[in-house]
Amino acid sequence: MPTCPVSSNLNQYLELLLDSARPFLRGELEEVDKNLPHLVSVLRSVGAGECWHKHGSFLEHLVDLYKILKLWKAPDSVCLCGLFHSAYSNSYVNLAIFDPSTGRDTVQEHVGESAERLIHLFCIVPRQSIIHDDLLFKYSDRELIDHLRDSEVSVRNAKEKGVFDDGENWRKKLQGIVPAEGIVVKHIRTGENVSVSRRILAVFVMMTMGDFSDQLFGFQDYLFENTNGRLEFSGNNFMALWPGDGKPGLWMTSISRMGAIYNLIVREEEIYLEHRRRNGENRNGLNRDEDIELVIPPVFENCTKVLNAEEQIMGRDMYWEAVCCGASGKHLDLEKAEELLVKCVEKNPFVGEPHIVLGQIYLNKGKFEDAEKETMKGLVHILEWGSPWDKRMTWEGWIAWGRVLFMKAKEKSWPQTSWGILNLGLVK
Fold first, then answer.
1. What pLDDT, in 10s, does the model give residues 246-263?
2. CA–CA separation, 168 vs 53, rounded Å?
3. Which of 150, 272, 303, 313 lies 20 to 30 Å from 340, alpha-carbon distance?
């Protein structure tokens, strides 16, 4: 995924993102991978579309995670792991549409050996405890911010100067948690030891970022009493009624922390490999899965920012109040909604929907340049995520609406009647 450039080139970046997303927007899955329609039909034939999954059906979620990983430029084996990622069930959900004792050969025939190995590992490791207890909960927000800063310097020193310092705080801590040779965990069903390389662990962290972003919304906050916005799964309100009010969920702080840790692992891997290269060493015999490319998702400014939990909550609540108080379209309500949305994007600048709604307010006011700026930012964020933050509407719906607003802002026109609003739809 290309790095988001300065604002003067944002329009060009938006076009690049749209080009990547267009096959998914048009349902032309064969343009993404000629075998993808067949793989989706396989999942459909074993009942994935009949299984409930958080925000919809399991089939929808599987295809959505594939889409997210593809838009993030993940390797094919990782994208295919996303497409079949819980097919044997895992530590989070009971969705064994393929029996792991008899179905591995069947899955391998469809996706290949490399992808099936990832799928199987993903389904047997204790992902909740690995990612949360063993990674996320070992770091404070302050540590992650400091270690991201320090690690950037370390990578530059390694590559430009050949300087390698294992004694740096960020490296010592990361190596203590995730050493170069990887980790050993217990199989969630048999209790046997399972070896997981550091790179595969990193892949599973990145996949969990996409996985959570696609499925989490306000319902899980009620279910786990996530009042502090840190998604620690500490509550037990099992009587929460699905789907709740549809409010955006408080999952982004947790995902930003995953992104930071993922980035730290990627940087440590870069230093590790650079050190070996300079020493003239070949692969050291350990199964480190170095053939798997580690890509950086574009979210949270390429996984370099950690979102404060309190600011996440304030931003979400401001957005919710704005879309509710602005629903009537009255002038005074829109003034209040504009004020709230401006503050919202200051608190949480990493989601697109507040920019889109703010763009509509500016169109209503005839502030076309401001509307163009906001809708462009909103579209970029939504396309980068590959999933909606406000899940009352689909990802495709938010993009279509945002593109209509963006087009009208560039035309410097906006309907002044209700029928005019209903008549919108065509995107040039």
1. 999 999 999 999 999 999
2. 43
3. 303
